[in-house]
């Protein structure tokens, strides 16, 4: 079914250049593949060399050019070098997908603060640094698109995940404010808020959350699915499809939005 939809919209991103952070695995890889299938040239950024190599090997079979960018979005100099590398080859970035992110349990009574900084520095500050650098070169009134991958946890809280929830709430606020700031440049800024998506990160999250609650992973997953009205998790490709639409010229009138892809898990 997903392939059939691709065939109908294959050309909507032809000629565009997209930078996808965290594009080597999970949702990011699905986004990279979907944008490539729709004609965009893809720069996949990751701080993990193995993820970069794997993504490049998979995407090289698409008709769109692909490059891998070693980049830790928490490091301003690495971000500058990574963006400069894309511009040096393709001379433009039309689409920025801020997908790179981390999660993890961080109870408020934990003695160490490392997890808080790891999550907030990656999910929020890293997005800020990357967006700021890309906007320096993004052309005005040329279909510029910034798409931030937030979460439904940017709209409600979960015990034990203060850093993740705070970072994703912050990302939605960042999206809304930035959308107003760059509206006169003809650039749109939107966030996508996935619910449970079938990825390795989600599987680790279920294991961690189940242990926190003292139940089995199977019990936790059963409860999680029961809380989704459509009674299934989201496929990463479904997120990719929405990214492709928001990245296209068809979405010009959509900006400052935080759009849920969660099977009805939340309607806020």
What does this protein look like?
The protein has 268 residues and is an alpha/beta fold. The protein has a single domain, classed as Rossmann fold, CATH 3.40.50. The chain is built from nine helices and seven strands; from the N terminus they run αβαβαβαβαβαβαααβ. A seven-stranded parallel β-sheet has the order 3-2-1-4-5-6-7, sandwiched between helices. α3 links the parallel β2 and β3. α2 crosses α9.
- CATH superfamily grouping: NAD(P)-binding Rossmann-like Domain
| Rg estimate, integer Å | 18 Å
Low-confidence stretches: 1-9
Helical residue percent band = 40-55%
* Biggest pleated-sheet summary: 7 strands, parallel
SSE order, one letter for each helix or strand: HEHEHEHEHEHEHHHE
- The structure class reads alpha/beta
What's the CATH class label?
Alpha Beta
Q: What is the name of the CATH topology?
A: Rossmann fold
